[in-house]
Design a protein that fits this description.
The protein starts with 5 loop residues before the first strand and ends with a helix. The protein has 24 helices and 23 strands. Helices cover about 45% and strands about 15% of the residues. It is α/β, with parallel strands linked by helices. It has an eight-stranded parallel β-barrel with strand order 3-9-14-17-18-19-20-21, surrounded by six helices. Strands 4-8-7-6-5 form a five-stranded antiparallel β-sheet. The relative contact order is 0.12. Pathway: Carbohydrate metabolism; glyoxylate cycle; (S)-malate from isocitrate: step 2/2. It catalyses: glyoxylate + acetyl-CoA + H2O = (S)-malate + CoA + H(+). It is an enzyme of class 2 (transferase). This is Malate synthase G.
Length: about 700
């Protein structure tokens, strides 16, 4: 492969990436190809060695922590001594003096509004367009086709009884969000509306009336020519909610991108979004359809003037973390380049199309002139500081003013959450969100304390002391650092897209916590979750929580080991089967088909939106139990064998699926799943990427040979 690479300022670059950069990404930016490659080479020369050094520090700290636990095995845990040890080795750092973040030119969707956030794999153009267009959604549709309301539509056509349920629910919601001066929305007989608070009415469209509540917009559509409006006393045909305020286009956990071909496909979709011209053509219901980005929405104000509202979600892009390298670019010494550095350079370059006005003005992204990059899996303030310096260098290379590139910090690694104030301080002038991630955070919790003892069962983690402290501290520290009104404080994903009733019941806890955004798996979920931000005034809730103290670090550092616990044989078998099924169900699609995120049936056949973070927690849990003798290698292999048959049956309807049961010796997916467990203790920070990338690369080579 080396002789096919192209020399660009001393870097060896895959031809497909070089061509994409020079013929598609650079034109229209005003940047010369030679200057781009020279700048990229300079950034890599400056930052790649530091990247390597930071990863070595991770390994050094982990080895010291492992040794500390090994030396004290069998002794009661001494929390004071443990914390003193973590400070001595530099795992815990001194907290900076109180400060307020200084991020400027932040779009309202991030800083001053509260609402849902979608996360979408960047390799799927159709999903990307759906996510970008999920800024607005029909409440009627979201209620009618899901279990949000008990029951389901009868027959194939419109079910009037189900429709009546939907209309009643939606109008009761309007009573709460936009109360009338007298009576209820269900009693309304015309479009003549008198509100309790007239200021909530802000405009009209051709058939709609636009209202605002808690900063979010609601459009009630009046159309007596519509089948629904024709039977409605007031002629209301729909209620449209402002839904996904923001969306994260993901280059990381939800995609399988292992080579230049994959990276170019991902970058090309980001380019289409930033230029405003991304489209996708597909077959639906026997007909071909083309989807594009929605334009902005135009309204008339009560004084007769016109105004527009964004028609699309504000888009972030999630780069990869510091760990992985990419074969798409090789350094002068022959090493693959750090993938996160390449992502930072290329995604920022592409965003120039939006910043410089080359994008379709009716489909522009940031109105404040910022680029929004989510940076995952950073360990502590040194790594946050590295990202800040890297973004400085990228801005200088691309001619951007300082802090144009904003950063979202994923608080999903133990050393980051334990030093969250210092991490925020390291990026204080460009930070635009902090976000918790239960799965990755639990995976790192287990890996960091791997030698401390056997962990409690995976399902018990959500109610453990450390996770409660983690979620509370994220909000408390964010508020103390001045994120309210300046940045997002975010919460994690609702993973069950078919369980909207449960989501409506439970996910209101996220705005109640003081988080002004939380992740959802679909546009429908975004519309339903948006109702929570009408029921909760998040910024008032933040003001209440800002008066709290910060939950003590001691509680966060409580290790979730099963002290004095003897697991029964049934408990062990259930835990192994649950983990093995989840690992196989996800890995088989990742390795064999290159699918990084999809609705994967769990052991109870409930479809869950899974990405790589799910894999990390399950594989680390099995590796931990194996290490401490809770189970044997034979029991793990037996669980994998049983669950391979189950996963095969669950995927029987997929014509591209390759069975694993009975083919264990030749199935690369099955071998990858086993490796994630049996080599789990030795994987860096317990990450799954190194093994997944290696097995997917083998599979792609195999497919190429067979073609």
């Amino acid at each position: 492969m080396t002789d096919r690479m192209i020399d660009k300022s001393g870097l060896m670059v895959a031809p497909s990436l070089a061509d994409f950069i020079e013929t598609r990404a650079l034109p229209g930016t005003g940047i010369d190809p030679h200057a781009f490659w020279a700048g990229t080479a300079d950034i890599l020369a400056r930052f790649a060695p530091d990247n390597v050094a930071l990863l070595r520090k991770r390994d050094t700290l982990q080895a010291q922590i492992d040794s500390w636990h090994e030396q004290r095995r069998g002794q009661p845990h001494d929390a004071d001594a443990y914390q003193a040890f973590l400070r001595d080795i530099g795992y815990l750092v001194p907290e900076p003096a109180p400060f307020t973040i200084g991020s400027q030119n932040v779009d309202d969707e991030v800083a001053r509004l509260a609402g849902p956030q979608l996360v979408v794999p960047i390799l799927n153009a159709r999903f990307l367009l759906n996510a970008a267009n999920a800024r607005w959604g029909s409440l009627y549709d979201a209620l009618y086709g899901t279990d949000a309301i008990a029951g389901a539509p009868a027959g194939k056509g419109y079910d009037a009884a189900r429709g009546a349920q939907v209309i009643a629910w939606a109008k009761a919601f309007l009573d709460d969000a936009i109360p009338l001066a007298g009576g209820h929305w269900a009693d309304l007989t015309s479009a003549d509306i008198v509100l309790r608070d007239p200021a909530q009415f802000i405009g009209t469209s051709e058939k709609g009336k636009l209202f605002r509540h808690n900063g979010l917009h609601i459009e009630v559509v009046f159309d007596r020519d519509h089948p629904i409006g024709a039977t409605d006393p007031a002629g209301i045909s729909d209620v449209t909610l402002e839904s996904a305020l923001t969306a994260i286009c993901d280059l990381e956990d939800s995609v399988a991108a292992v080579d230049a071909q994959d990276k170019v496909a991902a970058y090309a979709n980001w380019l289409g979004l930033m230029r405003g011209d991304l489209t996708d053509t597909f077959e639906k219901g026997g007909a071909m359809m083309t989807r594009a980005l929605n334009p902005d929405r135009t309204y008339s104000a009560p004084d007769g003037s016109s105004f527009t509202l964004p028609g699309r979600s504000l888009l972030f892009v999630r780069n990869v973390g510091h760990l992985m390298t990419t074969p798409a670019v090789r350094l002068p010494n022959g090493d693959d380049a750090p993938e996160g550095i390449i992502d930072g350079i290329v995604t920022s370059l592409i965003a120039l199309h939006d910043l410089n006005g080359h994008a379709n003005s009716d489909r522009a992204n940031s109105r404040a002139g910022s680029v929004y990059i989510v940076k995952p899996k950073m360990h502590g303030p040194d790594e946050a500081s590295f990202t800040n310096s890297l973004f400085d260098a990228i801005e200088d290379m691309l001619g951007m003013t300082r802090h144009t590139v904003k950063v979202g910090v994923m608080d999903e690694e133990r050393r980051t959450s334990a030093n969250l104030v210092a991490c925020i301080h390291a990026v204080k002038d460009r930070i635009v969100f902090i976000n918790t991630g239960f799965l990755d955070r639990t995976g790192d919790e287990m890996h960091t304390s791997m030698q401390a003892g056997p962990m409690i069962r995976k399902g018990e983690m959500k109610s453990s002391d450390w996770i409660t402290a983690y979620e509370d501290r994220n909000v408390q520290i964010g508020l103390a650092c001045g994120l309210s009104g300046r940045a997002q404080i975010g919460k994690g994903m609702w993973a069950a897209p078919d369980r909207m009733a449960d989501m409506l019941d439970q996910k209101i806890g996220h705005p109640m916590s003081g988080a002004n955004t939380a992740w959802v798996p679909s546009p429908t979920a975004a519309t339903l979750h948006a109702t929570h931000y009408h029921r909760v005034d998040v910024f008032a809730r933040q003001a209440e929580r800002a008066r709290e103290g910060v939950t003590p670090l001691d509680t966060l550092l409580t290790i979730p080991v099963a002290v004095g616990r003897n697991f029964s044989e049934d408990e062990i078998a259930q835990e192994l089967d649950n983990n093995a099924q989840g690992i196989l169900g996800y890995v088989v699609r990742w390795v064999d088909q290159g699918i990084g995120c999809s609705k994967v049936p769990d052991i109870h056949d409930i479809g869950l939106m899974e990405d790589r973070a799910t894999l990390r927690i399950s594989s680390q849990h099995m590796a931990n139990w194996l290490l401490h003798g809770i189970c044997t290698a034979e029991q793990i292999d037996a669980a994998f064998a049983r669950m391979a048959a189950k996963v095969d049956a669950q995927n029987a309807g997929d014509p591209l699926y390759q069975p694993m049961h009975g083919r264990e010796g030749e199935s690369l997916a099955y071998q990858a799943a086993r490796a994630l467990v049996f080599e789990g203790v030795d994987q860096p920070s317990g990450y799954t990427e190194p093994l997944l990338h290696a097995f997917r690369a083998k599979k792609k080579a195999q497919l190429l040979e067979d073609a």
